[in-house]
Amino acid sequence: MLSRVADNLYWLGRYLARAENTARLVGVHSHLLLDLPRGVSLGWSPLIAMLGADGGYLSRYQDYSEANVVHFLITDRDNPSSIASSIAYAREILRTIRDGMPRDAWEQLNALHLFMQEEGEAHLPRAQRQAGLTKVVDGILLLHGLLGANMSHDVGYHFLQLGLHLEQADMTTRILDVRTVDLIQWKTGDELRPFQHIQWMSVLRSLMAYQSYRRYEKSRVSGPAALRFLLQNREFPRSAMYCLNKISACIAKLPANRATERPLQRIRALIQDANFERLLENGLHEWLDEIQIGIGQIHDALAKRYFQFDGVESSEALQSQTVAA
């Protein structure tokens, strides 16, 4: 497989996961604000922090109003992490490689792109927002189904899965990082203590994990239990450990890459050995930062091994460079 194609498939998976997770975040946050008591407002800035986009946001907007944040995250094409941008990037990738991809997948992604172009702005107000976000999430889930059912599960599919699961692991840790900082600050207000479980529920719902969590834990939502489920569970598809195990399984089917295996093994060991009761009291933010740095190291190792070259080869050689299947 051409390295260019492998790179495209990897980023196709990442963009699809990014668009889906961003849509879920905006939808769940809108509902969370309705569940909190009067006088308590989390604002909209945490959503920008989750995506690490504060610099780009503040360069164009003066405040973190609901209208500005929602526009920035859903339809702003100048924001590379917005839903519209992620879908547009994914569509462009699929357009360039569609000869080797299921035709139904192209038609579905193109329809989703056209929806965002033509009707995205109309679904920004709160009354219409949930319908638009649901269409995005359902459309991407349908696309995953089309790719999984109709695409050959060969080396290209493994690169697609690498991107999807690496992006999901990154988004899971980002959501936990920002939400948990808010929860820790709540401990200083005794009047807010009874409502802490509401925000933990929003964390689970952001990842469509609430029902699965209740099946496993069979108890009221709590911080340590939610962290254990979203980070250590080996069976829930959006938990960090599940995603890392899937990445390991995909790498095992590709040409050897020791540089990727090392940070992957280190992160899995950190998650497996974590004491979340102790980390919630002190050090969880720094611990999650270390996990996110490790995820970045995995991406760098994958890019260097499969998608980039050291400049020794000629441009013609670069164009013909292949990844062995």
UniProtKB/TrEMBL annotation:
Limits of the DUF403 domain: 1-307
Top-level taxon of origin: Bacteria
InterPro entries per UniProt: ATP-dep_Glu-Cys_Ligase-2, DUF403
PANTHER family assigned to the protein according to its UniProt record, in alphabetical order: BLR5612 PROTEIN, SLL1039 PROTEIN
Protein name per the record: Uncharacterized conserved protein, Alpha-E superfamily
Source species of the chain: Solimonas aquatica
Taxonomic path: Bacteria, Pseudomonadati, Pseudomonadota, Gammaproteobacteria, Nevskiales
